[in-house]
Specification:
The chain has 163 residues and is an alpha+beta fold. Helix content is 16%, strand content 34%. The radius of gyration is 18 Å and the shape is elongated. The protein binds cytidine-5'-triphosphate (CTP) and zinc ion.
């Protein structure tokens, strides 16, 4: 008979194995647990009809207290998707898996200028009327505070509009 420890592994690595390894695709790791469902929305995972998607949250992590992991089988993220993730939660790790091996590991970082990702909150801003890419300057990273390049409105993390 299994004892309780075996059924509910406490060790970080053991817990990660609760979600299967994938053969090919993307593993987003070290996600702050409160951000996990924001990423699901941003990556439109609810609309992903091919390939297994595994989402685990409240996993213990030495790096960030509690963390989440998202594994998307058979899908590789575009640079634009990676940038969106970095804006919502900088410092996550994006692993590309090929033939069951980690082929690429990127520690995402927030760029100093965020281009074409965030919609300006100011309805009168030129970026909401002309066909020009939105552009924000990062003033503070944590908590996030950014400034529109065009109308100079300041946008805080909780006001972010990411379509
Ligand atoms: N992984 C997976 N399928 C594979 C290989 C790896 O799902 N075929 C997952 C692992 O479970 C882990 C992540 O991809 O969540 C990164 O794998 P690896 O670099 O081996 O793990 P760590 O060394 O713990 O990563 P880090 O140093 O970034 O914490
Ligand atoms: Zn603006």
């Amino acid at each position: 008979m299994m004892n309780e420890d075996e059924q509910q592994p406490n060790n970080e690595k053991e817990r990660e194995r609760i979600i299967s390894f994938i053969r090919e695709g993307t593993v987003i790791d070290h996600i702050p647990h409160q951000k996990i469902f924001d990423l699901v929305r941003i990556l439109a995972l609810h609309k992903n009809t091919d390939g297994t998607i595994s989402i685990a949250t409240n996993l213990p992590s030495k790096k960030c207290g509690k963390k989440g992991i998202i594994k998307v089988e058979g899908r590789f993220l575009t640079p634009e998707e990676a940038s969106k993730i970095a804006v919502i939660c900088p410092h996550v790790t994006m692993n590309t898996i090929q033939d069951y091996r980690v082929a690429q590991k990127i520690n995402l970082t927030l760029p100093r200028i965020i281009k074409n990702i965030v919609t300006c909150n100011n309805p009168h801003c030129i970026s909401n009327h002309e066909r020009i890419p939105t552009m924000f300057h990062v003033l503070e990273e944590s908590p996030l505070k950014i400034k529109c390049n065009y109308c100079e409105i300041i946008v805080h993390r909780e006001e972010l509009i990411i379509p």
